[in-house]
Amino acid sequence: MIRRFINNFIDVLYPKCCRICHQRLKTNSVDNLICIDCWSKIKKNVPPFCRRCGRTIKNNCFLKNICPQCQRTDFAFDRAFSPCVYEGVVKELISQFKYKGNDYIGTSLSRLLIDFVEDYNLELKLFDLIIPVPLHPKKLREREFNQAQILSKCLADKFGMELSTNNLIRVRDTSTQTDLTDRERWRNMEGSFTVRNGSHLKRKNILLIDDVLTTGATCCEASHALKEAGVAVIFVLTLAN
To answer: By C-alpha distance, which of 14, 19, 22 is closest to 33?
Structure first.
C-alpha cells in the first residue's frame, strides 16, 4: 500500500511521461501511460502459430504446425497463445508491471490480450472459467498484487466470464525463474501447485492466464494439478512468449 501511494504521489507531482521513452505524453497516448510510437513498436506474434506454445513458426515447420522446441516437449495444457514476443517494449512494460509496484499498467497490458482474442476470434464462450496462475502467499505479500489476476479480471469483465481465484493454489515458494536454465526452470516448478475444491472443476474447460510463457514450466505444472483434479481442457493465454 505504501509503495502504491508513493507511485501515485509521484505521478501527480511530475508531468506524465511515456513509461518507455520518457518523453512528455500527448493526448493520443495509451491510457496516459505509453506514447503511441512506443506502443506501436510492440512486436506481435503472427500466424502461422505453433499449435502448442502459440509462437510464430517458420515456414519450414508449417506442415507440422509445431515449432522445434515444442516437438521436444510434452505439455500438460492443450494449447497456448501469446499476442506478443517477449522483447523490447512489452518486456519492459511487464517488468515495470510486476517488479516495480505499478499494478495499474496491467489494465493497459490487458488491451493486448483483449485485442488478440477479438482479432483472432478466439471462442472464449467454450471455456467455463478463467483461472490466473497464483502467487505463493509470501510473494503475494511482498508484491501486494498478483499480475496474472489483474489480467484475468480485465478479461473476465470484458467478455463476461467467470473468474476463479481460489481453486488453484501455489504451495511452494519457488525461486524466481529469470536466471535459471531451461532444465532448472522445470525442476524448480515441480509440485508447486495444488487444487482446492476440485469437484468444482471436474470436466470444466479452463482458460489459464499468466504474464509470460518461456519454457512453459510454470503453466505446465499448474495445468498438471488442474488435470489431476479432473479438468477437461486447458488453454493458456499469456501476454508474451
So the answer is: 19
- Please state, in angstroms and rounded to a whole number, the distance separating the CA atoms of residues 139 and 144: 8
For the chain, the first-to-last Cα distance in angstroms comes to 30
Determine the topology of domain 42-240 in CATH: Rossmann fold (3.40.50)
In whole angstroms, give the CA distance from residue 108 to residue 179: 27
CA nearest 34: which of 94, 139, 105?
A: 105
Q: Which three cell numbers stand for residue 227?
A: 488435470
175 versus 209: which is more confidently predicted?
A: 209
Q: What is the mean pLDDT of residues 143-155?
A: 97
- Average pLDDT of the chain to the nearest whole number: 91
Domain locations in the chain as residue ranges: 1-41, 42-240
Quick one: cell of 17? 511521461
Global pTM reads: 0.90
Taking residues 10-34, what's their average pLDDT? 84
What separation in angstroms does the CA of 56 have from each of 53, 89, 122, 237? 9, 18, 17, 15
Instruction: Tell me the per-residue pLDDT of 51-88, one tens digit each, with 9 for 90 and over.
Output: 999 999 877 665 578 888 888 888 999 999 999 999 99
Q: Where are the alpha helices (DSSP H) in 21-104?
A: 36-40, 68-71, 88-99
Question: 87 near 55, Cβ under 8 Å?
Answer: no
Question: What proportion of the chain, given as a percentage, has pLDDT over 70?
Answer: 90
